[in-house]
């Protein structure tokens, strides 16, 4: 089949590779001029690194080079993905700098209208357009007056060079990983740097107590099991039963360490709630130099505060905060999250995609209900996003061959709704409209592979209980599927 893929981030590229290996033709569109999505030069802000440690942010048959730092920079991740397209022959299938404006169902195929003015017809369509792709800029009152006075408002992803902030009064809005990351390099050149944080979040030290790499705690199966899933197995039953006090103290001890390590009490930056609250989808790795900057006075955090209005005073741009403070502000950088949409899909397709709260309704985070020939990838954002995306690509490849046994449509819908209801409670609705699966990344990998009877051995999974998950443990999955499909084995339903 000829499969169209929208997006050349890690999800689109992993999908392309897997489908090519299974003998399909693919065409991958990206509006950016380079591959990599989040890591593209068009979206990288200074200070951007992965949160996941290098060895865990990998593809099963293409780990990141060992000579890269433990937390590779955005540019390094982009180069690695660029090299992936060469290694697996994806390059001739790329259409970079081409936006898909419209995707319409026509006679069982998809007709794509492209920003170049051309069209393309494909048999199947994979939407891998990224769930953290379109920045969500707040609409500030008074923005016109502020801009007329020389002020500038930018999304964090539009700040490609810290020099933009040189000698300026900079305000960074947000307290997530991106906000803290972009603050540090700006604070090194700015006249003043203020962070406007509506809500403080817990930050996990990269090295807990300066010694233990956080991957040993949170990027293991044990780390995942500290959070209660709706179906408990084996040791999880103990951890969420008699072992509950141990489990809680393991999690909350990270909070105490974080408090001590970053002197949060002295800095007045202790977030509300317990560390267990990181499950609410708000986990962030601490940015090197952030709390040090706060201590040194080069970064000022305004906690529990928002910008209520941008304006001008004496012809100079200023920001008025909810606590009455007025700050001079030449540059306002908004690291205020992303907006997720599929504007290229027509209304009659879109109506199948969402529930009444506009959560995405996707079986296994992949398959929309009631739309044939359409798949999503990357809508399973996790602690191990490349691995989740790659295993979703395997599932899509199997589904194309009719090799995924599925429940009947009613049961599928009930399962999707039950999963969303569970995530509502487990993450306090911080699941980005059903597209983020943290902290249950590996549950998703297991479910996807169990569907295909392709899960890795229990022995290796057990090894991942205490050691960080190694995506290369999954390198036999795609070849095994491809061999099975070639042998005509495992075809369980009509394609
Ligand atoms: C700052 C940041 C740090 C992160 N760090 C980690 C981490 O450490 N570990 C982790 O597991 N995850 C991390 N993530 C999550 C991250 O989203 C995934 O790791 C992964 O990069 C997402 O890949 P993707 O392919 O799904 O989406 P993206 O990388 O966003 O790629 C989607 C692509 O689709 C293109 N596109 C969109 N619409 C169209 C259209 N209509 N036509 C053509 N092209 C289109 C976009 O241009 C983009 O290039 C991070 C995310 C962010 C924002």
From TrEMBL:
Keywords: FAD, Flavoprotein, Monooxygenase, NADP, Oxidoreductase. Its EC number is 1.14.13.-. Pfam families: FMO-like (PF00743). The keyword Flavoprotein applies. It is an enzyme of class 1 (oxidoreductase). GO terms for molecular function: monooxygenase activity. Coiled coil: none annotated. SUPFAM superfamilies: FAD/NAD(P)-binding domain. It comes from the Bacteria. Belongs to the FMO family. This is Flavin-containing monooxygenase. It comes from Dactylosporangium cerinum.
């Amino acid at each position: 089949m000829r499969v169209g893929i929208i997006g050349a981030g890690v999800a689109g590229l992993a999908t392309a590779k897997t489908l090519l290996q299974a003998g399909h033709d693919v065409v991958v569109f990206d509006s950016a001029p380079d591959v990599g999505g989040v890591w593209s030069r068009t979206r990288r802000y200074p200070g951007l690194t992965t949160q996941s440690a290098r060895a865990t942010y990998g593809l099963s048959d293409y780990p990141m080079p060992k000579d890269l730092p433990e937390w590779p920079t955005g540019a390094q991740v982009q180069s690695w993905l660029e090299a992936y397209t060469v290694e697996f022959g994806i390059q001739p299938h790329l259409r970079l700098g081409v936006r898909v404006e419209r995707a319409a169902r026509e006679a069982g195929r998809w007709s794509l209208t492209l920003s170049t003015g051309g069209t393309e017809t494909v048999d199947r369509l994979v939407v891998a357009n990224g769930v953290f792709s379109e920045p969500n800029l707040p609409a500030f009152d008074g923005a016109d007056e502020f801009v007329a006075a020389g002020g500038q408002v930018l999304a964090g992803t539009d700040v490609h060079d810290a020099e933009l902030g040189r000698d300026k009064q900079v305000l960074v809005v947000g307290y997530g990983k991106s906000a803290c990351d972009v603050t540090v390099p700006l604070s090194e050149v700015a006249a003043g740097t203020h962070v406007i944080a509506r809500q403080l979040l817990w930050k996990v030290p990269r090295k807990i107590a300066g010694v233990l790499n956080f991957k040993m705690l949170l990027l293991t199966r044990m780390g995942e099991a500290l959070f209660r899933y709706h179906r408990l197995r084996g040791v999880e039953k103990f951890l969420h039963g008699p072992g509950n006090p141990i489990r809680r103290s393991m999690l909350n001890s990270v909070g105490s360490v974080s408090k001590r390590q970053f002197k949060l009490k002295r800095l007045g930056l202790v977030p509300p709630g317990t560390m267990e609250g990181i499950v609410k989808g708000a986990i962030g790795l601490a940015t090197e130099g952030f709390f040090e900057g706060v201590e040194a006075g080069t970064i000022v955090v305004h906690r529990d505060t928002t910008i209520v209005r941008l304006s001008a005073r004496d012809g100079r741009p200023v920001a008025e905060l909810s606590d009455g403070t007025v700050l001079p502000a030449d540059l306002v950088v908004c690291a205020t999250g992303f907006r997720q949409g599929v504007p290229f899909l027509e209304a009659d397709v879109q109506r199948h995609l969402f529930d009444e709260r506009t959560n995405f309704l996707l079986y296994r985070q992949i398959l929309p209900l009631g739309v044939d020939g359409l798949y999503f990838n990357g809508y399973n954002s996790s602690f191990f996003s490349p691995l989740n995306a790659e295993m979703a690509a395997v599932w899509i490849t199997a589904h194309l061959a009719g090799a995924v046994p599925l429940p009947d449509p009613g049961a599928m819908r009930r399962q999707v709704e039950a999963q969303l209801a569970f995530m509502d409670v487990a993450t306090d609705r911080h699941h980005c409209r059903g597209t983020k699966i943290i902290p249950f990344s590996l549950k998703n990998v297991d479910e996807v592979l169990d569907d295909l009877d392709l899960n890795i051995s229990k022995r290796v999974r057990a090894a991942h209980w205490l050691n960080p998950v190694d995506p290369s443990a999954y390198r036999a999955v795609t070849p095994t599927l491809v061999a099975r499909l070639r042998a005509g084995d495992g075809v369980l339903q009509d394609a």
